[in-house]
Structures are given as C-alpha cells and as structure tokens.
Amino acid sequence: MFKWVDFKTDFKCWAPVWCLVFASTCAGAQAEAKKTYPGVGRPATTSEIAAWDIDVRPDFKGLPAGRGTVQKGMEIWDAQCAGCHGTFGESNEVFTPIVGGTTEKDMQTGRVASLIDQKTPQRSTLMKVATISTLWDYIYRAMPWYAPRSLSVDDTYSVLSYVLYLGEIIPEDFVLSQQTMAQVQARMPNRNGMTQQHGLGKVDGQPDVKAVPCMQACRPFVQIGSVLPEHARNAHNNLALQNRPYGPFLGIDTTIPRQK
Q1: Which one, 10, 78, 109, 167, has least CB within 10 Å?
Q2: Tens digit of pLDDT for each residue in 21-46?
C-alpha cells in the first residue's frame, strides 16, 4: 500500500530518484542504504525533487503562479491541440470530446443532468470532471500528446482558459490565474458529481474510500481477479482478436463458454 507524501515539506530522499515515488519507504531505505551499501547513492537534489513535484491538488496546493488568457489559449490550441481535439474541442476522431453536453443550469447545480437522463450518449470531459485542478494538472504534465511537458505554466493557464471558454464556463475576457481558479471551480458543471459512496472494497459494510493500509493482523493473501458476465461475452465479437498480438495479456476467447 502506497502512502501519499506532501512533497511541499522539506523532504529529501536517498537516490536513486525512484524512491521519491515509493515515499512511504524512502526514509527507511535511506538509512538502510547508508548502512548496507556505503558510498552508494546520494541525496536527491532540489531540482530532481522539483521534477517530480508537479502535482496540483483539488485545494490548489501545488498550483504554480502564472496567468493565462482565452486569446493566448486559442492561439496555442489552434497550433498544437486542434489536430486531435477539433477547433472547438468537439472532435471525437482521436479522443472523446472535451467540450459539450453541459448547460448553464448544470453550472448552477454542480451536477450534469445529461449524465443521468441519457440525452447526450457521448460523454465529454467537461461533463465528467469534477475539479478544475485535474484539468490543469493533466494539461501541464501530459499535453500536447506528441510533446508532453512542453507547455509553460502560462501556456497551461491559457489553454485551460480556452477550454473553459469553449464550455461557456468563463467569459472571453477572463484572466485565469492561481488567484482566480477557485472562482472557476465554483462554476464547474460536475463539481458535485464526485462522491465517496463507492470503493474497491468494503470495511464494516461501508465503501472503503479512506485507503488506510493494514499494518497488523492483515490477510496473508488476497486473490484479485475479474469475471466477464455471460451476457457480455462475445457481445462485440471475440475479444481475443481485439487485443494487441504482444504483451502478457492477449485476451480470452469469448466464443468459448465460461467454465464454472
């Protein structure tokens, strides 16, 4: 079980740098490395930690200072984003649409009605995402697809501004910055759509959404698996033929009845 660690604190980890990811064991690994492997490794530098420390949280912790405008965002979008997402964020040729399916009433209630009434079978990003920080974080770390991390902080604010403008969440003259992000969050169409009424498992009959690791008297072995329901088998032809012909999992032959 991994443990979330606040990298905003004065945190140093023993190299190699991958121990930053496994932060729950980093302190112990550092001490053990010094004792078992003297002269191997070194403390991670400030720049190395900063390269990993780019997450932005729903409370906007980690959001860097910067600003962006709709006009600048449109210029970047047309040059680097429209090829995959369409001029107005409506294309589904490469990915699902980013914009569409939301209304002014959704922005007032914080729940996207068309997610329930099925009027819009195609789900757009703005219909589903609950927090604006998620959009900022993903654009900054992963876009554009062919050159991730090539956008500056101000570029990211600008691209996000344009997306929000296309979704009619902000006006054309709005300046998006770390100071105004909270204003926009208050208008996100599905901001109230994220719940904690579900989880991967249950504890005392309730959804396990706290992710508290077991430290003692834990189960020695947990079997993880999945089953394809009988009614879904072969619904879209043989799944075994729809997987890549390489890798560890090639898919099951769904033309063969499941063994009970």
Answers
A1: 10
A2: 444 445 565 666 566 777 788 888 99
